[in-house]
């Protein structure tokens, strides 16, 4: 017998199969590069000022000339990519005036590799629903169900992707189970869940364990995000929600992952974020390359298949993930990743470790 929540979520997910993928996702805050922009240094400076006002309000003004040189090179590279007919149109996102090393150190590494505990996994494995494996929805996209996702967060120069992924997953089940929209405190996890390493990285499952041990977590209003590791404090007011346990989804098994995400968003790993293709990702289906040691964790929020013009072509299967770098990165903060390659652990290792989600929301 399935719990009522599972039934409801599955029905919602099935209903989604019919809706259009990105209907609710609109173009916003995107800065593109035209031939006029790159025509002269003066026009490039005008473009930089526009970009700066959006992304660097807190920057050090003495640093600006050096930053402009990096931006200049990046804008020209992005212009060339678009001109050469890239599959997607690239724009200038939040990384446009950073060096590769600054990007890699500040953003690309926030979930160190750790072997997941075997015994714990055995006891807490996802139990597939009655739709598994042959009647799974054709597509699932939690972005299109109002209230389930609280919005794309921005980690800043703090390796807190694991905490944002964990709060995102808890926010989703809090809404699905209790019908409440609340942003949970990422900063509380960064500061207080000592099994993790704050802004130097961590693991969503240890964040879930912290919430279980503390019988709950505060809201982001009670304990706001500052984006650096600060001293753990206990805000006034009671914790806004809790969870009873967390559940692992078998690795190297796409259908189980599809089954799990048809019920609620799930935290997945991602390997190889230190690359210009990932840094510049602006849309379309990401296929890598991803061969490096930098690691990330984020929320899997759906899957689907991009149809092809050719009737004999089955199309390209993809996952939908929510990143933690704000809305100027990717498709308004989200990314499509090619689905498949399950025996190799998926593109960039997305299914190479057990995915994890919180359960029994209170
Ligand atoms: C990121 O990639 C660049 C270019 O490949 C490399 O030089 C740098 O060492 C990498 N940084 C990290 C932290 O992996
Ligand atoms: C939660 O945070 C997002 C992104 O920061 C914001 O857009 C949204 O309004 C917040 N939602 C609530 C219910 O506070
Ligand atoms: C952390 O960020 C807050 C808010 O921006 C700032 O007041 C504080 O000085 C920062 N702490 C550290 C250790 O950088
Ligand atoms: C990554 O690159 C190294 C060196 O080029 C290579 O030895 C290794 O096999 C590659 N790993 C994967 C997973 O492609």
From TrEMBL:
What's a Pfam family in this record? Inhibitor_I29
Q: What biological processes does GO assign it?
A: proteolysis
Q: Which residues form the Cathepsin propeptide inhibitor domain?
A: 48-103
Look up the signal peptide feature and give its range: 1-17
Name the PROSITE patterns on file.
THIOL_PROTEASE_ASN, THIOL_PROTEASE_CYS
Which intervals hold domain Peptidase C1A papain C-terminal?
136-359
Superkingdom, taxonomy of origin: Eukaryota
What SMART domains has UniProt attached to this entry? Inhibitor_I29 (SM00848), Pept_C1 (SM00645)
Keyword field = Disulfide bond, Signal
Select a single GO molecular function from the record's annotations and give it. cysteine-type peptidase activity
Q: Which family does it belong to?
A: Belongs to the peptidase C1 family.
* PANTHER family recorded: CYSTEINE PROTEASE FAMILY C1-RELATED
Under what name is this protein listed?
Cysteine protease
Q: Which organism is it from?
A: Lolium multiflorum (Italian ryegrass)
């Amino acid at each position: 017998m399935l719990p009522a929540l599972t039934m409801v979520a599955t029905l919602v997910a099935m209903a989604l199969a019919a809706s259009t993928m990105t209907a609710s996702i609109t173009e916003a805050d995107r800065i593109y590069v035209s031939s006029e922009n790159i025509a002269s240094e003066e026009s490039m400076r005008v473009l930089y000022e526009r970009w700066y006002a959006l992304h660097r309000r807190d920057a050090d003004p003495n640093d600006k000339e050096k930053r402009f040189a990096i931006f200049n090179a990046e804008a020209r590279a992005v212009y060339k990519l678009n001109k050469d007919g890239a599959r997607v149109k690239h724009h200038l996102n939040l990384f446009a005036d950073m060096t590769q090393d600054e990007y890699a150190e500040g953003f690309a590494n926030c979930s160190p590799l750790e072997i997941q505990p075997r015994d714990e996994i055995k006891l807490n494995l996802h139990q597939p629903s009655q739709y598994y494996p042959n009647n799974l929805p054709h597509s699932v996209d939690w972005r299109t169900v109002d209230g389930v996702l609280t919005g794309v967060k921005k980690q800043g120069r703090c390796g807190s992707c694991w905490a944002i992924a964990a709060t995102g997953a808890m926010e989703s089940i809090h809404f699905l189970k209790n019908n409440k929209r609340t942003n949970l405190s990422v900063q509380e996890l960064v500061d207080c869940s000592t099994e993790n390493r704050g802004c130097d990285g961590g693991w969503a499952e240890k964040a879930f364990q912290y919430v279980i041990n503390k019988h709950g977590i505060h809201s982001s209003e009670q304990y706001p995000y500052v984006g650096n590791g600060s001293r753990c404090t206990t805000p006034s007011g009671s914790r806004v929600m809790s969870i009873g346990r967390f559940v692992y989804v078998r690795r190297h098994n796409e259908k189980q992952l599809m089954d799990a995400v048809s019920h609620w968003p799930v935290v997945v790993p991602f390997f190889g974020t230190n690359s210009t293709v990932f840094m510049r990702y602006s849309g379309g289906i990401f296929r890598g390359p991803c061969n490096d040691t930098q690691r990330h964790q984020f929320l899997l929020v759906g899957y689907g298949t991009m149809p092809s013009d050719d009737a004999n072509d089955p199309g390209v299967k993809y996952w939908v993930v929510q990143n933690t770098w704000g809305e100027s990165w990717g498709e308004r903060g989200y990314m499509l990743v090619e689905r498949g390659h399950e025996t190799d652990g998926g593109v960039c290792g997305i299914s190479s470790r057990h995915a994890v989600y919180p359960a029994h929301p209170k």
